[in-house]
Amino acid sequence: MSAGSDSILDAFLYETNTLLEQLDSIVLAAEQQDSFSEDDINTIFRIMHTIKGSSAMMEYNSLMTIAHRAEDLFAIIRDKTMDVVPEELRPELFDLLFQTIDFFRQELEHIENEQPLTEDIDTLLQKVNRLIDQIHSGGQAQPAPAQGGAASAPAAQASSTTATRDGFPYVLQVFFDEGCGMENLRAYMLVSSVKDLCAESDFTYEPQGVDSDPATADQIVESGFLLFFRNQADRDAAIHAVTASGSVRSYQAIDQPAPEPRPAPEPAPAPAAKQAAPAAPAPAPESAPAKAPAQNAPDKKPAPQKAEATHHHKESLISVNLDKLDHLAAVVGEIVITESMVTASPELKGLKLDAFTKSARQLRKLTDELQDVSMSLRMVPVSGTFQKMNRIVRDMCKKLGKQARLVLEGEDTEVDKTIVDSIGDPIMHIVRNSMDHGIEETAQQRIDAGKDPVGEIVLSARHTGSEVIIEIKDDGQGVNYDAVLNKAIRNGLAQPDVEYSHKDILNFLMAPGFSTNTEVTEYSGRGVGMDVVKKNVEEVGGTVIITSEPGQGMTTTLKIPLTMAIMDGMEVSVGGSIFTIPIHNIRQSFKISDSDLVRDAAGGEMFKCMGSFYPVIRMKDLYQMDSGVTRIEDGILIWVDAGEHSYCLFVDELLGEQQVVVKPLPSYLNRFNIKASGISGCTILGDGNISIILDVSNLCTYAQ
């Protein structure tokens, strides 16, 4: 596939996914109101129209056909208002739209994975056709057509050329360039353009089925493509759409003197057109150039005014490939490092360079600003991820027979795009857990417990300095600590004669293969769960904390850095090596004496602070370094925390705070399981030295 085709495909996927997200939120909100507003109906009609047109352009026939019939459905609702859908049919309408959205998403996934599209769409198509028939009959079920297809409905509306032309006396005959190919799809795109200019009920066309029947291309080549209009103004407006279309060789305006049944019109009736349409003289077929529409256009031009009006509301937004933003962030990172290397060059030590210092200060200001701008380009709100959870809760309520609502808070909180993509699955799984395990089985159980019969799941996000806190909280039955502990003992994760705290028991939930469900369901019971959540969150430098109160619910908290590319760190030295500790993990630093330490029977050291004891990890001993401070009075103690774990690191000295560019470690080091040693990456300092970035959450294992 060429680069041009790739860009077109990327644009199609991006646009369609965006439209489906918009459609999902509209249908979810409408289902709660049990009705669509006029704006909703128009928006859904436009969405289906856009998907239909772009799918036809890409030659994805299954997508185009379903979108076409969904568009037909909402054309009926748009013309006759929502009252045309009986109350008893509305749940079926909402379910059908959700099935249609799922179908589109499935097909897009096939396209992304270069898999063949679904050919058998008859089941979904028949559901749409049946619903249209029921709406027409006022809610009475009608037998579904034997053959599904986008062409079946138009065929029912106009079974012959005679029926098609009755009531549509103004005709436009279009011929496409010889040998252009796909004449049926070109005709279909022309119909889509005309729909934007006049009501669909005010025109029709011949041959029917251009969107689904490739055989119509031969008929168009031989006799042209015919558009029939109720009034002359709509036909005159359509002329502008014809002349703006590509591959149009010629067109001819023809007026029928009477609604007399005749075969498909040929270019021959042109003289009648001259007598009946003085405002629009018709050129002879195959002689009027498609590029010279001015002489055919009437003085009154309503269509261009509509087109011009839409241009006034263009948004100044562009979509950018994430790889380009990654490259930009990498270049900015190199600029930051180079700037530090220049201003902190050892050759400048001892020199008094006022002009250089002033310029260096200005350079630092500009690089900081450039860095902030480049990072802001990658920041996106979590609203997109949060909104998807509405659909999860809605579907599970129906399938599990439960009553619950989802409350979203802090949707505008912005996080790095890479991190947003990484936390979507963990959040989805936690929400599913809340629905499956947390919310009580029946409304009566909740009433007996003194709760609202409708369960509530709160999904919130907020900023706290350099990280974002995401909480998923439910008001369900909470964790059964005894059941979890017994399952952990059976799985060999816990010892029966050991007393565990509630915090320890909750941590068993994040062990691989752990599940308290006794039956395998669509949503749980397969032992794949919170361990995957923990792994995915930790891969982006975050932590997972679970709290629960029996009978009151459970809260899962995700602490995630805003970005993974650049971070604020504290540089510390141990012997001749330099380490970087993320600032958001540091709580306090101390200068202490040996008498302030408490030693246990195993020789471990602890430091008492604010009424609690915290383990002490000596960096020199942990990494078996030859040099470094040994006496506690000669070094400094740094109190750090990661999630629920707090401990102290003993280092030689603090070198100062610095914003660093995070560099991944070489892939060949993965074989040594370096992450388990508390190392998450590295950074290049201003003097060219390398500093190891510590992973505080993994270091905590050495403090237990």
Descriptive notes:
With 704 residues, this protein is an alpha+beta fold. The chain has five domains: 3-153, Up-down Bundle (Four Helix Bundle (Hemerythrin (Met), subunit A)); 163-311, 2-Layer Sandwich (Alpha-Beta Plaits), CATH 3.30.70; 322-380, Helix Hairpins (Orthogonal Bundle); 385-561, 2-Layer Sandwich (Heat Shock Protein 90), CATH 3.30.565.10; 566-703, OB fold (Dihydrolipoamide Acetyltransferase, E2P) (Beta Barrel). Helix content is 42%, strand content 20%. The chain is built from 22 helices and 22 strands. The strands form five sheets. It has a six-stranded mixed beta sheet. Strands 6-8-9-11-10 form a five-stranded mixed beta sheet. Strands 20-12-13-22-21 form a five-stranded mixed beta sheet. A hairpin with a 2-residue loop joins strand 16 and strand 17. Helix 2 (38-58) packs antiparallel against helix 3 and helix 18 (481-490) crosses helix 19. The longest helix has 31 residues, at 3-33. The protein is globular. The relative contact order is 0.05.
